[in-house]
Amino acid sequence: MAKLLVLHGPNLNLLGTREPEIYGATTLAEIDADLAARASAAGHEIDAFQSNAEHELVDRIQRARSDGTAFIVINPGAFTHTSVAVLDALQAADLPVIEVHLSNIFRRESFRHHSYVSLAARGGIFGLGPHGYELALEALANLIEAESSEGAR
To answer: Rounded to two decimals, what is the model's pTM?
Structure first.
């Protein structure tokens, strides 16, 4: 069993009501509940955390270094494009990271095309709505399986 940390950045607490034409009608609570059910079915545990405050996300990432977290899924919201602090925390945590965005940041305003977080991520999923989180969970399950197989050799 692996402990997976799912981090949601600023304004994601407004999912379902904020710009549904961009972000859809699914709420953050629905996304987290779906991920928890999928992770549990696969024998894993999800710890989901959302904050509008950069320092709280950094603090949570730092705790992941020593609390048994094996992998991080992060949708950093606007901090994607601005936060070297989140990048530094992810690099210091030294855990596998998958970056998720509900919208395709590369089809939006040009300032959204740059992601600091991508420098710490093994991969990214963009523009697939809430399904992107499911794909990130599936990718992490594959990584867990691959690492278990390598460790058994």
So the answer is: 0.90
